[in-house]
Amino acid sequence: MELKKIILEVMAEVADMTQNQLVDSLSDDTILLQSGLDSLGFAILVSRLEEVLGYDPFVLMDSPVYPRTLGQFVAIYEQYA
Amino acid sequence: MYSDEPVSAEQQQSWFSHLQGDPTRRYFVFLQDGRPIGTLYFTQITPHSCEWGCYIGEEDVWPGSGLLLELAALDYAFDVLSVDQLNADVLAFNTAPQKIHALFEYEMVGRRHNIVHRNGESFDAVQYRHTKANWLAQRGAVMLRLPGRIREAAALIRFEN
After folding, report:
1. Average confidence (pLDDT) over A27-50
2. Which residues of B touch A45 (CB under 8 A)?
3. What domains are defined for chain B?
4. How close, in Å, is residue B147 to chain A by CA atoms?
5. Complex ipTM, two decimals?
6. Integer angstrom CA distances of residue B73 from A80, B43, B104
7. Segment B112-142, tens digit of pLDDT
8. Residues B26 and B41 sit within 8 Å (Cβ to Cβ)
9. Which of A21, A22, A52, A56 has the fewest Cβ atoms surrounding its Cβ within 10 A?
10. How far apart are CA B161 and CA B159, in angstroms?
């Protein structure tokens, strides 16, 4: 399955779990902090993605890079796939 | 505290100079990998209690940074300031921090009505409280609810004057 689709599915799952409401118009340009997931939601998202994908890119990267948008978030996962 | 009015450079400098040596307030810049991304602050500090607040001013931050601030506030208030009670006010429409307060086992103790007026609307603030005894009793269980990466990052939190 396409990595972006997996990430979006896990995002939706985490949003349900944490009682967050994702915005309707999620796109590559969506600012992560405005996506509807809160701080706990993002922490759980990264944790769940590590379970699903088998890696956490934020641990693997040599120097810290933090995504601002959903597109950047997906790109980081694609880079370390 | 809840004003969204523009602040002039002179007002900011005055605020900062009054902050120096004020024993009732402590402000920290939140550095993440050496980069300033937000603020954690304590106000109304007495030997018994204080209030805290925070904000993250950048959009590209480590996922879960708000949880680290929440944890840092509780540990600093009870370990360093040694107060018995930590208070937090949250605007009622701001639901994200309220959910995190609930996760961290804060007690909701009241509501202040119509304390903020914006664009012709009035908003309430919800009042939360944590006591030292409760936090020490619940810290372990709360930590277990957090993702592993947050627990690992929490071990790296440190305060510098």
Report:
1. 91
2. 63
3. 9-154 (3.40.630.30)
4. 6
5. 0.71
6. 34, 12, 11
7. 999 988 888 999 999 999 999 999 999 999 9
8. yes
9. A21
10. 7
